[in-house]
User: Fold this.
Amino acid sequence: MLTLKSKREIAIMKEAGRIVELAHIAVRDAIKPGISTFELDKIAYDVITSHGAIPSFLNYNGFPNSICASINEVVIHGIPSRNIKLKDGDIISIDIGAQYKGYHGDAARTIPVGNVNAEKLKLIEVTKQSLFEGLKYAKPGNRLSDISHAIETYAKSFGYDVVEEYTGHGVGSALHEDPMIPNFGEAGKGPILKPGMTLAIEPMITMGKKNVKVLKDNWTVITIDKLPSAHYEETIVITEEGYEILTKDTKEND
Assistant:
């Protein structure tokens, strides 16, 4: 069921989103060649818990860690490990969720590690911008798929592909709520956007083909052609005028 959030609920979600932002800043500042994804997970855990929140992903459906750390061809759900260390030239997608007073914030970023080639940097930038192209349609009266269509159109205009098996979602007192939000499809479909809707919009864009598979750990999703993928996500609320990002990273462009 698709729910509209009250001002009180949105205020709590904004604090959850702020905590997610702080965890992202701390993790991003620590990313460098040689660091393990387990160390990044510990950094995020410490930030989240020090602010009175709970990592949304920890033990969610059995997921063993606080963040998803997905390197290069790993699209999403990469499991942090002491044995996985970042290398110069990698790109890593970090997905973080925090539950605060019963409500969740959820955001992902793809970050370059050391000296990254121009192709990967362009993929990161287009993935990020595809989200904001979609958000141009995040306002009352539009249809949900207007966002989806804009994301797909923008990403594909650069020759990239869009992962279809995994989507954005509603978010609130549950980490995953209705509606499901594809990053592709025709415009003018799905629910009408209304103030109070809280949504996690998250394009997953591939440099090669969109086809993916899940590894034997039952979590890690990789591109079948092993070409890089990028992931960008924000939690938003639909407002009377348009939308507000609840997981805004104010240091992002510093």
